[in-house]
Design a protein that fits this description.
The protein has about 325 residues and is α/β, with parallel strands linked by helices. It is built from twelve helices and twelve strands. It has a six-stranded parallel sheet, sandwiched between helices. A six-stranded mixed sheet has the order 7-6-8-9-10-12, with helices on both faces. The N terminus is likely disordered. Bound molecules: alpha-D-fucopyranose.
């Protein structure tokens, strides 16, 4: 329904002979300043706030104007892309609220003369396949998922747990390629290391980017399996794992019986800073600097010098926990 609204909105100017298209064609921008949009699916998630912060540093360095906009659904994204074009933006770095909007987004950006650089979540075509021809920078998701799995295995061993008795909780977002690859990677490693399929409890995280929704999804798992006394937990990112950790606290499960390992680092770091260790044991710190600064910089050089960015870039991550997070965040320019 929503997507249809977006398609109609896209088709209307075309049907009407596109009377506004010439007016909306990219202008140099007021004051001659080049304008670039940076649109993300959630303005409240620390990951995206950090990405914006670094993108702003690129804008400050090169002197372009960065238009930071959230778009949480198809309609908002459609409005935002129209808006960016009418403000004279010539390109947009985008983490889409819905990867299935791929072809519609590509058509819209072409119509509005906006160069498109997708970040984090890759667009899917009409057959649900990744759109390899659209520029994309994302994480090496499967590899990072496996890092999470291995770190869970290592910590459980260190605590002397018998893997066959441990509950494995996964909050999944399988409709997003990068998220599915992460949780599949972690699952694979755990199952190869003595954790049991029968103890693997997956629950889809209905509203990703929303911690209360993750708490709900995790509570369901915990309520159904009160016999399980020790848990390892993972998800597509820190916020999902934090949902599990908060839910376990609400159920009075001791922190030492929970090993939660996230991805991003941007949310987990707040738990690492707490005086007492929580179930949020570690995280794979990504590089919001690369995802924010470098994408904005590449877009700027693409518009200004016609220097096309690589079609695909995959970034890495590094494990952080309470013992090293301060130093690692500093190295990434995050503190
Ligand atoms: C996805 C996740 C974010 C972040 C990003 C790199 O968009 O939802 O939390 O991990 O990939």
């Amino acid at each position: 329904m929503r997507r249809r609204g977006f398609l109609i909105a896209l088709a209307l100017p075309l049907l009407a002979g596109c009377p506004t298209a010439t007016n909306e064609a990219p202008k140099a921008g007021e004051g001659g300043k080049l304008k670039i949009g940076f649109v993300v699916k959630s303005a409240s998630e620390p990951w995206f706030q950090t990405e914006w912060k670094f993108a702003q540093q690129a804008a400050d360095k090169y002197g372009f104007t960065l238009l930071k906009q959230p778009a949480t659904d198809a309609e908002e994204l459609d409005r935002t892309l129209n808006n960016l074009a009418s403000q004279g933006a010539k390109g947009v770095v985008l983490c889409t609220p819905d990867t299935k909007l791929g072809p519609t987004i590509v058509a819209k950006c072409a119509e509005k003369n906006l160069k498109l650089f997708t970040v984090d979540d890759r667009l899917l075509d009409a057959d649900g396949k990744p759109m390899h021809d659209v520029h994309y920078l994302g994480i090496s998701a499967s590899e990072i998922g496996k890092m999470v799995g291995q770190a869970l295995v290592d910590e459980a061993k260190k605590r002397g747990w018998n893997p066959a008795e441990v509950g494995v909780a996964a909050l999944t977002v399988d409709e997003i390629e990068t998220c599915k690859e992460r949780t599949d990677g972690a699952t694979e490693v755990l199952l190869k290391n003595g954790f049991l399929e029968k103890n693997l409890f997956k629950n889809p995280w209905k509203k990703p980017n929303d911690i209360p929704a993750a708490v709900d999804a995790a509570s369901t798992i915990l309520t159904q399996h009160t016999d399980v006394k020790k848990w390892v937990a993972f998800s597509s990112n820190d916020d999902g794992v934090l949902g599990f950790v908060r839910a376990s606290e609400q159920k009075n499960i001791p922190a030492e019986s929970v090993i939660g390992i996230g991805i991003n680092g941007t949310t987990a770091k707040d738990d690492f800073a707490k005086e007492k260790q929580t179930g949020m044991f570690a995280s794979v710190l990504l590089s919001p600097k690369t995802h924010g600064f470098s994408t904005a910089e590449m877009m700027y050089l693409w518009i200004k010098d016609n220097k096309e960015p690589p079609k695909e870039t995959f970034t890495k991550g590094q494990l952080i926990d309470r013992t090293n997070f301060k130093e690692k965040l500093k190295e990434e320019g995050m503190e």
